[in-house]
């Protein structure tokens, strides 16, 4: 080992020189990236010091005096609550369903729009479908609830079509809740989320389509062999990104649509924390649960990234 | 599959598809438009309806009793106009700065030979997942930086976004390498290559990113509530609308006052104000959108690192 | 001469400056209100008067998002406004030590108005250490409490149902539901063919009191929240506190609702409705009855009145269990004596530089002159006087509800959160315009006048027994549950979840099984809550 090091001395010096040389060559790249790096470190990482509160009994009464260190008590409290465990299940279930249904819907919409030849029609559809993105959740949920009431239009249609005998209790039975949330999310965001796929598709080289047509490929073959491979990298990166966000199933929609009858299926981590953490001024618990979510998110992200790497696909990291 | 291997029957079939598919597709998209448009039109209709009447529900896409009371309630306030100014200012500034910083980093990280590439990418990507939470972030802005009660609190914390960096980086990586190469041979440094060659070529992707950033900044109200709640000349439009909304909810409850609860005659009610609020806050973005949509033609891709 | 004049001028200037300084230099006071509100206009006429008289200008901040979140961040950063109204979470300000003890600045000599204002209720509103952080913003009556109508909880019934039945007296739960049942049997739909619903129960979020509160009233108690408190002390001076949902007398009410549900008089949607949908349903006139509080469904009343559907508006009824339930003869007691709104209103924060001046301002604002300005406005502009009575034209009265008008012509925020006089002035006028009898009568619809006439009544409160005297503990729902927050949250969640299940039980056996399961699940948190309330109530009694 040592002899080797001695022997390599001149080579090492040369290498070191080369490194400095490279660094000097890349000074403008550093100038462009290091300020942003510092910015990110300061605004995103420095506040993590606040995670220490997860190990303190921080609440309203000891804000000024300073909280005491209590070790993992906030975490054990959370994990001893069956409702919290249940809310993890609900969060993961809803975000997974949303991810799958939402991704498929926006890709399908993007493909259908991509097939439209009339430019004016294409733009109109695109503009109209992304409008609901701007409606507030309060309004959207209000409308959805009216639709799904026992005597609402959906039930009336189902009864008229003889699909059911008596009205389905959509809003009161927990088992429908995940499905309703998925529908509402897709409806609200499909247009907006397809923007990125649509613009990805427009960047596909048109000669690929022509070549496929000359080869005699029909519309579906072209979609299958040209369009889909064209959006694959976008799809993969978005997928990995979103897998890291599986612990975030949203707050507003569950808070607004959840009720006492479907609570076993509607309560997400954030809703639970709102009830037992923030509203009560028990900040330690809220921060502990936030920390838990972040950590799980990062683990999921690495997992997804690792699998993608194994499959030789595009990865995020 | 080549033409030679393709049986003739199948070819005829694909011709049939070419008539049937656009038709079915067109009909489907029309239905989809109706399904998405109806609630939007419904919102507009309610916003133009008499408030007390709207409480009864059942309004379609046309107001039952026409009234502009809800808009009067929003637009009669002088604050609305200063707030509009602040909103425009913050949206424009945030968008410009964010585009500059984000694309600068995207350029640096698009260069495979850059030694800190992996390290910085890792740190930056992680910011999408590491979130300290409301209270620690508040302490940073309010206590460490003392940005409360300033306009800059809208700008400084939102100058960079990782997702957009990835979008721009992928786009830059897709540009022909020869462009940068020939400039380098001509003696241009990296900064000039970025600023004079790459940046202008990025217009399509920057338009898309600009839309994302602008919409996000325009819709933001929570930062005003947290940091500038007591400075009414720094209110943003969204915050003002949010407050109007909350007030009309409040007056509807007239909670525990008991006073004057017997005669209530406000003509705008939460239902109508909520809808008018939505319309007012969405219109500016809707006006800007077509201008950005032009650039989508060239498009963008989202790509990562090939494993 | 010139020099002399200049000297005089300088002297005058110096003197005038001095006199300004003596009359207190103008200050700007920051105000936070834990409720949504509208920024007043810069030339608001009442705030102008306040500025002229006290040299105080206000800078307001109102709540726009979540109250607890907003307060939490403010408290963590010790970012306090001068005047701090924490809305319904004001306990947090007190617990966090953000407010000053007002009693340090008050005395009989220095602040006679404030001193007299709280004299009668001082024991109730000061804490264990004898400190007072917030003077109640409502509920302190002068001369006589004005009760024109039931503004709080009651069972409500559409007036047309009573008219249809020939204006009977409805006093018990059974009479009430029998009447609804009979009415629907004969009139299943309204004139437009929409189906009537017998009884609605709003369950959304904090409004779940419509679901969980009625039992105490059926047993003859005013609103104490979720507990039943024995008003007569036992031999040890102890007032027994019971969480009523776990008592025998809770079950019959929900059994009755279950029976109504199975008869189709209650729509299952009622348990999943949000507030907007509830209001929309009430406004359409198809809901015959509900348990609620008058202010809670105000928008529906407005909508029905505007549409001139007077028969579909509601009358408040004080129902009790009749003797067949086996709890004896119960006399109703829905109305309670004036309840000071404890710990609600402005506190002065510890970071305020002028606590003395602000206390003196509140002292002055409580004078007869300023109370009239704050509550009635400017004579000739906002009200007029006729034969010594303060009156308003319909226009003057209605504009008080117009948000835009209020922003320029009322000091709404300062008025709402400051201590104020209610009840009657010494000359018999009401302190608050809404309490002035003539004004109420003048704006009542002919339908309502006739309706009341059929019963021989002159006001809606005549359906009720007179208010009882306020208990020493005030109203028990005002007690801060922060120390047992987790159990209290559980206690509420379990009720919210199980009561609808019980009501929707398919048959008696299922109901009993559900009820037993419910009782088993709620027992632990109910016990914690009961012990806590027992202790807190007795603390208030023994003060």
What does this structure look like?
The complex is a heterotrimer of chains A (317), B (307) and C (543). Chain A is built from 15 helices and 1 strand; from the N terminus they run αααααααααααααααβ. Chain A folds into 2 domains: 2-47; 82-310, Orthogonal Bundle (MetI-like fold), CATH 1.10.3720. Chain A is flat and about 90 Å long. Chain A is 70% helix and 1% strand. With 317 residues, chain A is mainly alpha-helical. Chain A has helices spanning 2-7, 9-25, 27-45, 73-79, 82-114, 119-130, 137-148, 153-160, 177-202, 206-214, 219-243, 252-257, 263-266, 269-278, 283-310; one strand at residues 314-315. The longest helix of chain A has 33 residues, at 82-114. Chain B folds into 2 domains: 8-47; 69-255 and 262-297, MetI-like (MetI-like fold, Orthogonal Bundle), CATH 1.10.3720. Chain B has 307 residues and is mainly alpha-helical. The two termini of chain B are 29 Å apart. Helix content of chain B is 66%, strand content 1%. Chain B is built from 13 helices and 1 strand. Chain C is an alpha/beta fold. Chain C has 2 domains: 22-144 and 341-435, D-Maltodextrin-Binding Protein, domain 2, CATH 3.40.190.10; 153-334 and 444-541, Periplasmic binding protein-like II (D-Maltodextrin-Binding Protein, domain 2), CATH 3.40.190. Chain C contains 22 helices and 14 strands. Chain C has a 4-stranded mixed beta sheet with strand order 2-1-3-11. In chain C, strands 6-9-5-10 form a 4-stranded mixed beta sheet, with helices on both faces. In chain C, strand 1 (27-33), helix 2 and strand 2 form a beta-alpha-beta unit. In chain C, helix 12 packs parallel to helix 13 (298-306) and helix 21 (485-503) packs antiparallel against helix 22 (508-541). Chain C starts with a helix and ends with a helix. The model of chain C is unreliable at 16-22 (pLDDT under 50). Chains A and C meet through helix 7 and helix 14 of A and helix 3 and helix 21 of C.
